[in-house]
Amino acid sequence: MENEKKPALNHPLYQIQQNLDGQKRKKSVRKYDFKRALRFSKDQVRGLTRVHENFARLLTTQLSAQLRTFVQIHVSSVDQVPYEDFIHSLPDKTLLTVFEPVPLEGRMLMEVNLPVAYSMLDRLLGGSGEAADKGDGLTEIETKIMTKLIRRSLEAFRDAWHSVEPFHPEMGDLEENPQFIQLVSPNETVIVISLETTIGEVSGRINLCLPYVVIEELLPKLSVHMWMQTKQKERMPHEKEELQKSVRRANLDLTVELGTTTVTVEELLDLREGDVIRLGTGIDAPLRVNVENELRYFAQPGKRKQKIAVQITAEAEEAETHD
């Protein structure tokens, strides 16, 4: 059986075949930057996103209670980049906190944009939450206030990771210059979680930098299979506890009525210092205790440590039932 003849070099079929072979070779070659090695799988990135979405919810609840203003935080991006690129992407002045996730080996980083940091500081000091530009940096008192706030934020970070791996973040000092911090080698891969943050009228970002070498042993636990095995009820107690703490810290107006009476406008205008107003409440009658203008308790008047006080004797519903 004769071999099939190949087309001549100048034959149109040969040229078409050569073009097709060239296209296949081009498609089979992909550029790979060894400085940007992708060490986190898509599944692991999705797991990290879920963990920090939970962190964003916890942090929103916590900051809303502390700052007593509108706070909204959500995950805007999760990227893996060389540590050097992350540091160079930060502004020259920002608020940086290095912490150790004990007992894990290594360190992590939280970066808070200055507008967000100053807005939080202004709210804690009784202001409206403006992001005033402080060219001279934080004072010693302001540093202590922000340290306490960030330490509590790291507690929310701990709670968000609890279902994956329990650890305790130990906070280091605050820094304002990114060039002074060296977590890992410049080419080491880190995962950067950016949280879009809005406090009142001020918007900015909170960034978390987690080196691959620190969370490498936790990555298998971030797979979909392992995540689905974690029951929702194991995570709920932390959110419930945080919500209960926020409710307990809420301020309520409480007033005590000594009694009421009715007077004419003429009698009101004729009142002078030393006049006595007769109330419609008997001397032995219980006083009404209102919470947010609603009757909640009954009480009796007295003194405690030379100060006027009242003692709760019954809840309003209980007293009405006995009557």
From TrEMBL:
Residues 246-314 form the Flagellar motor switch protein FliN-like C-terminal domain. It comes from the Bacteria. GO terms for molecular function: cytoskeletal motor activity. InterPro entries: CheC-like_sf (IPR028976), Flag_FliM (IPR001689), FliN-like_C (IPR001543), SpoA-like_sf (IPR036429). Gene3D superfamilies: CheC-like (3.40.1550.10), SpoA-like (2.30.330.10). GO terms for biological process: bacterial-type flagellum-dependent swarming motility; positive chemotaxis. The keyword Iron does not apply. CDD domains: FliM (cd17908). GO terms for cellular component: bacterial-type flagellum basal body; plasma membrane. Keywords: Bacterial flagellum, Cell membrane, Cell projection, Chemotaxis, Cilium, Flagellar rotation, Flagellum, Membrane. It is found in: Bacterial flagellum basal body; Cell membrane. It is a peripheral membrane protein. PANTHER family: FLAGELLAR MOTOR SWITCH PROTEIN FLIM (PTHR30034), YOP PROTEINS TRANSLOCATION PROTEIN Q (PTHR30034:SF6). Belongs to the FliM family. This is Flagellar motor switch protein FliM.
